[in-house]
Amino acid sequence: MQFDIKDAGLNEEGRLRVEWADRQMPVLAIIRERFSRERPLEGIRLGACLHVTTETANLARTLQAGGCEVYLCASNPLSTQDDVAASLVRDFGIPTFAIRGEDRDTYYKHIHAVLDAEPNLTMDDGCDVVSTLHAERPEQAEKVIGGSEETTTGVIRLRAMAEDGALKYPMIAVNDAGTKHLFDNRYGTGQSTIDGIIRATNILLAGKKVIVCGYGQCGRGVATRARGHGAHVIVTEVDPLRALEATMDGYEVMPIAEAAKAGDIFITVTGDIRVISWEHMQRMKDGAILANSGHFDVEIAVHADPRKPDMPTLDKMAKCRRVIRPSLEEFTLEDGRNLFLAGDGRLVNLAAAEGHPASVMDMSFANQALVAEYLAKNGKDLKPGVYDVPREIDELVARLKLSSMGVGIDRLTPEQDTYLSSWQHGT
After folding, report:
1. DSSP 3-state assignment of 73?
2. 3-state secondary structure of 210
3. Which end is more exposed in the chain, N or C (fewer Cβ atoms within 10 Å of the end residue's Cβ)?
């Protein structure tokens, strides 16, 4: 078995943490038990580019139980938990290519290692496997049955590919399932982002002005958790409907150029590039803290872009920089101000903490497992394009989660069902 990890000897610690996460993932455990009996993924090779965490390990175990050959690489250079990667290799026999802190060349080498297995299903978190496959191995892409995408940024990229006519096989947007984005994005990102910032800085949020850039589901979650810690939350947005919602949710809303002067902590969750530019940083107060919880490290203009070498960025404009705490770097500017960057501008919840709690990833990865089963059965009948998660899968995940929590709900009576499906009932 081929693999590339930091240290296979870390497996024992990783195995214990995988087991602990599994206790918080009852829906995935139910699916794994059925998969082990029915083996619906027999003969399937799946190439996954995901954050290599304890939760992902339990997803990989579930796919494996269904008969699937799983090949795994990291979807972010700073999100890999090296002990988990070791456990995946040594305890579960899953070829894993992921090392925390790997450089860009190693990152893409690992993606190609997964693609060398010639998977007939793909599973992405950010669309890097899909885009690499289409750009560099187009003939191989035509042989893939289908794939699934975990995150908002990846779905945006996939829809752009589909609109351009470039997408060669069907993709299911797991991110858009109700049991994913309403819970993983909002509750998971909200809690884990604040967790990452606190671990990186050990600051008190109460009384601070926290700027949340973006008010999608992730931004809503971050804003809610920051306010719960006693912070004064300011939201920046480009979408008028979301800005209006944030206003009516009780947050102050203003342009980022104004917020830059007021904020103590800045958190980007948009999926777009240069949300906080050098021009904004020039307005920030001494001691401001910057963090990103969007998928790629492009939301804060930290590192020089080789395509735009003359564009001012934090690392180019600072006169000196130093790591002042684990996952926290200090940049000293020419005027003497210090700005602090958490997690190197990458996903702060994974770079400085452990990512989403397992109980919320239970639903996201239950969707992924069931979508893999769906694609194995139906993918050859689907044309290239981006599809929603089938409603029956989304509802099944919700029902299983409620059952695991001991929560019961009502069902419509025949009379109620008839009433809702009829247009003949008047006032």
Report:
1. strand
2. strand
3. C
| Element holding 320 (H helix, E strand) | strand 320-325
187-351 topology per CATH: Rossmann fold (3.40.50)
Enter the DSSP assignment of 61.
H
Overall fold of domain 8-180+357-404: Rossmann fold (3.40.50)
Residues of the chain with CATH 3.40.50.1480: 8-180+357-404
Please state, in angstroms and as integers, the Cα–Cα distance from residue 66 to each residue in 39, 44, 155, 263, 363, following that order.
4, 9, 26, 49, 18
What values do phi and psi take at 45, rounded to 5? Answer: -110, 125
* Max Cα–Cα distance, the chain, nearest Å: 74
171: which strand partners?
147, 386
Q: Is the dihedral of CA 8, 5, 345, 211 positive or negative?
A: negative
Q: Which single residue is written with the structure tokens 């003497």?
A: 336
Tokens 């289409």 sit on residue: 134
Burial class from Cβ neighbours inside 10 Å (0-12, 13-18, 19+) for residue 330 reads middle
Give, for 404, the enclosing helix (H) or strand (E).
helix 391-404
243: how many CB neighbours lie within 10 A of its CB?
17
Distance CA 56, CA 54 (A): 5
Q: What is the pLDDT of residues 356-394, one digit of tens each?
A: 999 999 999 999 999 999 999 999 999 999 999 999 999
Burial of 108 (0-12, 13-18, 19+ CB in 10 A): middle
Contact yes or no for 293/349 (Cβ under 8 A): yes
Q: 77-121: per-residue pLDDT in tens?
A: 999 999 999 999 999 999 999 999 999 999 999 999 999 999 999
Q: CB within 8 A of 186, min separation 6: which ones?
A: 217, 218, 220, 221, 224
Please count the other Cβ atoms lying within 10 Å of the Cβ belonging to residue 391: 10
